[in-house]
RNA sequence: AGCCUGGUGGUGUAAUGGUAGCACAGGAGUUUUUGGUACUCUCAGUCGGGGUUCGAGUCCCUGCCGGGCUGCCA
């Protein structure tokens, strides 16, 4: 690490390494709660934590922060591991759970009681809230605050044994009911929960709170820098308090601003609603900003990593524009995606001067950005299809595509000129009759005449018909939470976020592609085979992202 | 209202008292068998007011604005 222009966290860590703090060690961790799927915001944190460990020759642990069994599921824990691996990071044998430390945490709680620093409180939720005070008024001490240590010890023991109802008692730490930081007003560190835990089963009837578990878990794992988002800033004094009072290794908590993206949400809670209320197809719906959804949509891990690098790191609130994400995606896909031909809305094209029964094979380049990707054969015959929007009866000035009397190039094939438009009774265009120039095979002619327009096509003798799904942003508003009084983010859902096309045609070689391999349908966009599509009879293709289209953009108005 | 925290082009992020830079987006152009890609050029910024200094985005004071905090969630 010698480059300058480090972000503020890497600056701190460089200085710590230089001053031999923690003997020069760097050890981070990524600590998700298994109560939902990982999303793009988590990707930022994963890239940060694992990235820093890499850059400083350190380590990064994966820790499932499972202190609240009422919200957590093994399905989520499984998905988290899959997603972190897919993103390209490896925790080796360092997968931990906060629940691994329940026994130690319990002993530390007993220690605090013995030292007169913690007590069992019997205030109800409501009473505790009243005692806490408000933002402007100090709180009042709990009537149980000064009870005998032995009594607290006994009660805590019986809480653990499951003798009391949920909510009836808590273990609180004695700090300061007058603190301007509400988190310091005798926070609860243990609550009664008669809940099976995915990892510890029915062993525990009491569970530690986040504040009592997180810092100590970091400490036990020898974490040096505990990176978290801004909302934990007010918890740092507590984090520090426990490390100091327990006299244990004291990692440094550093907060950074979480990632926000416009036109979407970045909250597990809201995503859960979308899933539960069936506004989407599940956590891995290709419209979701979850890693599993983006993967299914066709996003590559490298594009997401590049994005996480480019968004930067600071403490100020931010909303990143979707365009940056799409830029990273296209930049990556452009280099690696093989090209294929396909048409979304087929329009029949017949070449009148082409032999009736002839079918020939032409060479098509797989990836102009990567010669090593080679070429493939595509068939060509008298009856083809082009995309309906590549023809205009009454074209504007700079329309380069097909129109009556204009010559265009069929990519990798021949020059054709439209001679006649065949219409149905309703006036709809049914077919184009064209003539081709046999001299233009492959896309060029001996006279080297210029043909500005090049369009894609498919051959009727070999094309296949997959279902194609086009996606648009999930929400209509840049900030989905920006709603009228009495409404919520759901009112901003984009009703057109999914369009399914049933009559599209693509070249047959699509079936040669491996699952999850990205490809480009030339001039249309990047696609991938939907991971849930049953091949090959009912092939489903997801459009990952459309091509940049400067023509469409300019002509929007 | 109290406490904490933050304010640099449209968006994001650098510059740590010494030429305000980079990326995305926007605009113009060159190349092109993808109206793609690549390349070139371009538009545009230090929240306001005081102060310290030869010199302030940076330090000090003050005002304004944004975000967070009153779970036995994390």
Structural summary, described in words:
The protein has 557 residues and is of the alpha/beta class. It has 3 domains: 3-256, HUPs (Rossmann fold, 3-Layer(aba) Sandwich), CATH 3.40.50.620; 268-338 and 466-555, Ribosomal Protein L25, Chain P, CATH 2.40.240.10; 342-455, Beta Barrel (Ribosomal Protein L25, Chain P), CATH 2.40.240.10. It has 13 helices and 26 strands. It has helices spanning 8-18, 40-55, 74-87, 102-114, 125-132, 149-160, 210-220, 236-246, 268-276, 291-297, 301-310, 322-336, 550-554; strands spanning 27-30, 59-64, 95-97, 118-121, 170-173, 188-192, 206-208, 225-229, 252-256, 338-340, 342-343, 346-351, 359-365, 375-381, 383-387, 407-410, 415-423, 429-437, 454-455, 457-459, 467-471, 498-501, 505-506, 519-521, 525-529, 540-546. The strands form 7 sheets. The chain has a 7-stranded mixed sheet, with no helix packed on it. A 6-stranded mixed sheet has the order 10-24-25-26-21-22, covered by helices on one side. Strands 4-5-6-7 form a 4-stranded antiparallel sheet. Helix 2 crosses helix 11 (301-310) and helix 11 packs across helix 12 (322-336). It starts with 7 loop residues before the first helix and ends with a helix. The structure holds one RNA strand of 74 nucleotides.
Care to give the gist of this entry?
The chain has 557 residues and is an alpha/beta fold. It has helices at 8-18, 40-55, 74-87, 102-114, 125-132, 149-160, 210-220, 236-246, 268-276, 291-297, 301-310, 322-336, 550-554; strands spanning 27-30, 59-64, 95-97, 118-121, 170-173, 188-192, 206-208, 225-229, 252-256, 338-340, 342-343, 346-351, 359-365, 375-381, 383-387, 407-410, 415-423, 429-437, 454-455, 457-459, 467-471, 498-501, 505-506, 519-521, 525-529, 540-546.
């Amino acid at each position: 690490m010698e480059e300058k222009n480090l972000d503020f966290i890497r600056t701190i860590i460089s200085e710590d390494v230089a001053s031999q703090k923690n003997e020069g060690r760097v050890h981070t961790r990524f600590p998700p709660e298994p109560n939902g799927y990982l999303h793009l915001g988590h990707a930022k944190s994963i890239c940060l934590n694992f990235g820093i460990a890499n850059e400083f020759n350190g380590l990064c642990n994966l820790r499932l922060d499972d202190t609240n069994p009422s919200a957590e599921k093994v399905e989520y824990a499984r998905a988290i591991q899959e997603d972190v691996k897919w993103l390209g990071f490896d925790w080796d044998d360092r997968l931990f759970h906060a629940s691994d430390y329940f026994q130690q945490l319990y002993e530390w709680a007993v220690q605090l009681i013995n030292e007169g620093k913690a007590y069992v409180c019997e205030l109800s939720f409501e009473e505790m809230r009243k005692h806490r005070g408000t933002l402007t008024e100090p709180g009042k001490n709990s009537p149980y605050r000064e009870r005998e240590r032995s009594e607290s010890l006994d009660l805590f023991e019986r809480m653990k044994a499951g003798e009391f109802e949920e909510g009836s008692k808590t273990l609180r730490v004695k700090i300061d009911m007058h603190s301007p930081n509400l988190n310091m007003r005798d926070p609860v560190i243990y609550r009664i929960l008669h809940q099976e835990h995915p990892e510890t089963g029915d062993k525990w009837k009491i569970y530690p709170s986040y504040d009592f578990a997180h810092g100590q878990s970091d400490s036990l794992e020898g974490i040096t820098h505990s990176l978290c988002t801004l909302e934990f800033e007010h918890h740092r004094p507590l984090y520090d308090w426990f490390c100091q009072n327990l006299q244990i290794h004291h990692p440094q908590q550093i907060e950074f601003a979480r990632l926000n993206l416009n036109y979407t949400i970045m909250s597990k809670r809201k995503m859960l609603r979308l899933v539960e209320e069936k506004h989407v197809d599940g956590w891995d719906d290709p419209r979701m900003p979850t890693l599993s959804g983006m993967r299914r949509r066709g996003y590559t891990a490298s594009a997401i990593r590049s994005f996480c690098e480019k968004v930067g790191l600071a403490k100020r609130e931010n909303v990143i524009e979707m365009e940056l994400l799409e830029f990273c995606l296209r930049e990556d896909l452009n280099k690696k995606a093989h090209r294929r031909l396909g048409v979304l809305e087929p329009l029949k094209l017949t070449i009148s001067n082409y032999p009736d029964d002839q079918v020939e094979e032409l060479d098509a380049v797989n990836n102009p950005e990567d010669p090593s990707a080679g070429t493939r054969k595509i068939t060509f015959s008298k009856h083809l299809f082009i995309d309906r929007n590549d023809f205009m009866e009454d074209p504007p000035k700079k329309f380069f595509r097909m129109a009556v009397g204009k010559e265009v190039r069929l990519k990798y094939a021949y020059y054709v000129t439209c001679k006649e438009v065949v219409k149905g009774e309703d006036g709809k265009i049914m077919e184009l009759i064209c003539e081709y120039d046999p001299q233009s095979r492959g896309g060029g002619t001996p006279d080297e005449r210029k043909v500005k327009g090049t369009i894609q096509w498919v051959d009727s003798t070999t094309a296949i018909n997959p279902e194609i799904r086009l996606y648009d942003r999930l929400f209509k508003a840049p900030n989905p939470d920006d709603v009228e009084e009495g409404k919520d983010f759901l009112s901003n859902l984009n009703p057109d976020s999914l369009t399914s096309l049933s009559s599209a045609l693509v070249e047959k070689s699509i079936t040669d592609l491996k699952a999850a391999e990205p490809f480009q349908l030339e001039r249309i966009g990047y696609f991938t085979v939907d991971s849930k599509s049953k091949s090959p009879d009912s092939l489903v293709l997801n459009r990952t992202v459309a091509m940049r289209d400067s023509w469409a953009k300019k002509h929007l108005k």
